[in-house]
Design goal:
mainly alpha, 5 helices, about 85% helix
Length: about 110
């Protein structure tokens, strides 16, 4: 449970700040996405054997990766609405899956 709290609180904070792009600016957005990536990798390495819902855990990380990759593409390619839509949808899915998986872990404990 302690590992979950040490991950969930900072990751939710990072996710909220990532959704506030207009308030934080692009430089902070990029930095926060890297911080989120480091948090996800560290958490995955330390808790892989104790995943309660492996499919959702993997899907959550895939959504973050898709959001990260499409974000990098958006920095280089402007004016492609489909990429922007995929970026936003995957970011929202990541946030929802983060809440669902961590709430499930908290309830099952």
């Amino acid at each position: 449970m302690k590992k979950n709290l040490m991950f969930v609180i900072p990751m939710i904070a990072v996710a909220v700040l990532l959704f506030l792009l207009r308030a934080t600016g692009m430089t902070a957005h990029i930095g926060l996405s890297v911080v989120g990536l480091v948090l996800l990798v560290a958490y995955a390495v330390t808790t892989k054997k104790s995943w309660k819902l492996p499919a959702l855990e993997i899907l959550q990380r895939v959504c973050y990766a898709v959001a990260l990759i499409t974000g990098v593409v958006l920095m280089n390619v402007h004016g492609v609405a489909a990429i922007a839509v995929v970026h936003r949808v995957s970011a929202v899915l990541f946030a929802l899956l983060l809440i669902v998986t961590e709430a499930h872990k908290a309830i099952k404990k």
